[in-house]
Amino acid sequence: MDSSPSASPSAAAAPAVDAGRYTFSPKLRWQPEVEEYFAAAYGRDRFARISEALAHPSCYSCIRVNTLKSSIHAVMHKLMDLVCENGLSDGINGVEIVEQNGGDQPHERSSLVRKCPYAGLENILFVQGSGPHVLNYNSKPDQSVKEVIVSRKCAESVLRGAQVFVPGVLACSSHVEKGDKVAVSVAVEQPVKDGGWAVDVHYEERKGLYIGQGTAAMSRSGIFRVPHGIAVEMTERVYKLPSFNDVLEGEIFLQNLPSVVAAHVLDPQPGERILDMCAAPGGKTTAIAILMRDKGEVVALDRSHNKVMDILKLASEMDLNCIKAYKLDALKSVRKPDEATNVGMGDSHCEAIKTLAEDSGPCHVTVDGRATNVNEESSTTTVVQSETEHLFSVDDKNPESKRYVSKAELRKNLRRMKNGPGRNNCSGGRVEKSKGFFPDSFDRVLLDAPCSALGLRPRLFAGEETLESLKTHAKYQRRMFDQAVKLVRPGGVIVYSTCTINPGENEALVRYALDTYKFLSLASQYPKVGGPGIVGSYELFNKTYTEEWLTEHEAELVQRFDPSSPVDTIGFFIAKFNVGEKED
C-alpha cells in the first residue's frame, strides 16, 4: 500500500486469515539510553508496565463541570439524556446508563456517567468507555481485507474517539470505493540502519497495529485528491469512548484528571491575583477562575496569538470575567521596575499610551483639550500634545515624568484600533500584548511547564526523545521556574506541573528549586490522588553528570500520576511550594 495511484502488491499478497495480525498490541519504542534511564528510575518491571499503559488510552473521560453555570446533578442528567437521545453511547457494549445511589454508593450495575470518587473533586464526572475490544476484520474470508493506513498522530486521535480525516491517511488499498468497509491500521516509526527512525507502511510492520474499522467516506482516488474532510467514518473501534464534542458548551470541559487536580492544589481564593504562566488552551485557567467564584483576577499567558484567542474564547463560553489573557513568552514575564509597556488607543489625532502596571485605574487621553477615559487595566497615563507638535506620555501619578511618543508608534496603534472590536472583544481579532509584570505581583502562580509530554496517552512512539533532548527540556523549565519565583509574593504559592514521566523534568526540578531558593519549601497537597515521587539520583552522560532527585520525605509531598496505576490516567507530576520571605 502507498499513496500513489498504483495498487500495493503487499495488499494483494496478504493472507486471508492471520489470527495475530488483526489485533491491537502496540509496543512503545524508546531510544535505548532513554529506556535504560527510565528503567533505573522506576525499576525495570514498573517501567515496562508504564510503557505498555502509555500505548493505550484511558477507559474513561473526565468532565469538569462549570459550577457557576450549572450543578453536578443537573449536568449528570443532561449527559445521560443526551446519551439516550443522540446515541452518544453507541458501541459501549454492556454498559447501562444509570446513576449511582445518592452519588456516593456504587450501583449494582455498571454506570456510564458517574461522580468522581476522589475527595475534593466534587465538580468532576467520569464518563465510562470500554476496551480493548477484539474485532472481526475478516467478515468475508474469500476476499482480502481492504485497508486504510493512517499516521501515528491520526491513530492516537482515533483511539480517543476521532474519525479518520484525509490529512492523516498515508496509504490505501486499491479499488476502495465510497461506502466500502475498510480496516484501519497505523504505520509507526521503525528503526533504520543509520540509527534513526522512519515510517514504514509495509505489510509486516503493521501487524498488531489495527485500531478499528469503518466505512470509507470517499473513494481511494478522492482521498488523495482533496486536502481535507473525513476519509473514514469509524464504526467499530478497539477502544470505545462516547464523544462529547460541542455538547453542553460552557457547562462542561473535557480535561485530564491530573490537570483538574493541579488547579485544586493551587487552592486559589476569591479576590486573589493568580498567574497561569503557560495557560493555553485555557483548561486550568478556567478551572482556577471557577474555584475563585470568578472573583479576583486570573492572568493567563501564552506566546501564541491564536492560543491566547482560544483562552479568551473558552472564558467567554464559560461566562468568566476575571480572566485577562496576554500574548507573552513566559521566559520574559518579569519586568524591571523602570520598564513600561506601551499599548495605544485613540482617534485620528493621537493614541493613548497604556502602561501595564500592577494596579488598576482609568486611562485618560487628552488631545486638543478633549479628554477620554478608557477602562483598561493600567496605571493612569495621559498623552499630551505640546505647542511644538511633539507628543509625550505623562503618568498622572508622577506629572513630572514625560516620555516622547513617536508618530510612527501612534500610527501603528491607530491602525490596530481602526479594525474595531472583533471576536472575544479583541480589537480586530487581535490580542493584548504584555512586556511582563513587576516582581512579587501575584498571590499564586501556576507553572504547567512545556515538557517532553511523555505522559500523554495514547502514545504509539517515543523514540524521538534522547537524553540530550530531555536535558534541554529541563533547562528550559528551570528558566521558567526562575521567573515564577520572582513573580510570586512572599507568603504566596507556586504549583509546578508537567505531563511527562521524566524525573529530570519533575523531581530534578524540585531538587533544583529547593537547593537554589532556600525560602521555598514543599507543601502538602489536597486533593491527593497521585502517588509519591522518585527518590535517589542517576548518573548520566558516562557518569559525568549526576541528576539528583528527592529524599523520602520530599517524595511524599509531591504527586506523581502513574499511567499503569488503577487511576488509569495520563502520566503527570505536581509539586507545590510555599514561598517564604525572599532574600535581598
Automatic annotation (TrEMBL):
InterPro entries the record matches: MeTrfase_RsmB-F_NOP2_cat (IPR049560), MeTrfase_RsmB-F_NOP2_dom (IPR001678), PUA (IPR002478), PUA-like_sf (IPR015947), PUA_sf (IPR036974), RCMT (IPR023267), RsmB/NOL1/NOP2-like_CS (IPR018314), SAM-dependent_MTases_sf (IPR029063)
Keyword vocabulary terms for this entry: Methyltransferase, RNA-binding, S-adenosyl-L-methionine, Transferase
One Pfam family linked to the record: PUA
Residue ranges of domain SAM-dependent MTase RsmB/NOP-type in the record: 182-580
SUPFAM superfamilies xrefs: PUA domain-like, S-adenosyl-L-methionine-dependent methyltransferases
Family that this chain belongs to: Belongs to the class I-like SAM-binding methyltransferase superfamily. RsmB/NOP family.
The name this protein goes by in its record: Methyltransferase NSUN6 isoform X1
Record organism: Panicum miliaceum
